[in-house]
Every structure is written in structure tokens, then in C-alpha cells.
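BUG: 3D viewer hangs when loading the predicted structure for this chain

Environment: internal workstation, default settings.
Expected: structure renders.
Actual: progress bar stalls at 90%.

Input used:
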Amino acid sequence: MDEHKENIHGKDVNVETTTTKDDEQMKPCSRIMTAGEPASEVSPSQSNSDFSDPVYKEIALANGHINRMTKDELRTKLAELKLDTRGVKDVMKKRLKSHYKKQKLMQSAAAGGATDTYYDYICVVDFEATCEEDNPSDFLHEIIEFPMVLINTHTLEIVNTFQEYVKPELNPQLSDFCVKLTGITQKMVDEADTFPVVLRRVVAWLQEQELGTKYKYAMLTDGSWDMSKFLNIQCRMSRIRYPQFAKKWINIRKSYGNFYKVPRTQTKLSTMLDKLGLKYEGRPHSGLDDSRNIARIALRMLQDGCQLRVNERMHGGQLLSVPSSAPLEGAPPPHSPRSRD
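C-alpha cells produced before the viewer hung:
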């Protein structure tokens, strides 16, 4: 529902979006600062003394050499190192720099493994919701597909998935536009359970994975809309409280833009895949297929050295940014939310 989410962004009055100073300075994808990179890469919680070790001079020299390489030279070097050779030039440069940085830091015992080591799992969510071709400003989107894709950050694999359709109650009849866009038929939603019932099964599935108890995890979305609009509005319509486990999440668009140094205009799902040398797999606007492809982007970012971190949250019905200086924490153990009544 990538482009359609863009069309509705800002129309709903149910949620206020707050932009803070933290939003302008936040670094959604934390990574180790290397010498030779701009000072703006340093987290506010870091000091210059953190980078006095001679290893950073070696990294800076390697970065300078990589910056002067042509696209063909980058691809040849990546192939020699048995690394992925797909993607645009800037992506390949980032991949090669990350490889040398991790190699040097591991040699100097200044850092550990090659993948994200804080969250054990990342859970990707991409809702599909009721929609019209030209949504009126007061249109209330109801969730009609609840998919989840679970990533193991240590093995860098998709390890499990969840998908259920949801019966809309406010506007039970899907528009022709919605059916064509999502591939979800009237029969599918008519035979589905209502949102509160499906949410209870979502919670049970998360609990089966031992998330928040045995394993640290975080939610991840493609943009802010899934949590701040679709889930928030749906919970209000269903008269249930917003689930605690979904109050903070990783907005992969922010993480991608920060890590690969590209503007927000280049962080749509199709563009991110293209820039990474990947092709969309499945049916566009299928919630589960969209979630799988978002997961593929997250996996590639982890492989390229990005440490994905929570960067957005809901508080008092408002969308807020989570600054990089905030303490790291996983999502809480999932529990079914209580009724608002």
C-alpha cells in the first residue's frame, strides 16, 4: 500500500504528527563512526576521544581509496571479497566501507560481529486497509490484512510469517479500487474475523516466538502510517487500547535514508529495492508480499553494516521521533490490549 499511504498522509485528523528538534538531528540507523567521515555522523552521546585509536586512521585511509574507485572497480573488489555486487555506486561504496571497517575493528578487538546484535528479531508489519480512489478527508481506513514477517538478525534470515485478513465493520463493502489495488476480495474479508479477534491471534503468535521474554525484538514498518494512522485509528474504532508492543518501531525509510545518505524522495519501497539491486517479489500491495520485500531491504541493510534501531514512537496519540541518544530497549512482551469501554 506504499503509494496509497503517501496519498493519505496528513489527511486524517485523528493523529497529530509532532516534529521535534530530535527529528532533525536523529540518526535512525546507528553505526560506528569512522575517522574521515563528517562530524555530523557522531551521536550526541559520543565524544571525540572514542575515535583516537589508530585503527580509525586506517579506516579513513581505506574510505578515501574507496571514494576514488569507479563503479566497475567497486564491483570487481566486491566480487573478489565474495560480497554482493548489486546496487548503485553509493550503495556499493557503503558496502565496501562497512566490510573494511568491520574487518579492521574486529582485528583491533574494538567491535564485535558483522550483524546487528541488540535485537534478536525484527518483526516487519505492513497493513492493508480499506480505501477509495480519491479518499475524502474524513475517510476512516480500516485494516483488512494483518501480515507479519519475522527476521532473525543473527542468521540474517526470514524465519516465520503471519497473515490474516480482517473483516471491516464501519464500511464492510470494499470499493472496486481497493479490491483491484490490494487483491483482497469481498469474500476474503466477509469470511475473516473482526480486528480485536485477529489482534488476539497476532499476540498469541508473537508470544509463541518468545519475543519480549526470551528474545529482544522491535517492530519495523515502511513509513509512519502503519502504526500512527492505520493501527491507531483501527484501535479507536474497535474500542481497544493501542497495544504497548507497537508503541515504538523502526521506520525503515528514515534508517535507509540516513545510512545510504539519500533524500526522503528516494525511500519508497520500489526505489529502495531498485537502488539495492533487488527486484520486487510477489504481488505489489499484498500486505504479506510487501512485508517480505521490506524484510529483504532490512536484511540487506544489516548485511551492509547498518544497525537498525527504533526511531519513531506513539505517545498520547502523537507521532514522535526517538533520538539516537535514547537508551536502547526492545519492545515489551506482547499482551492483548484492554477495551476502552
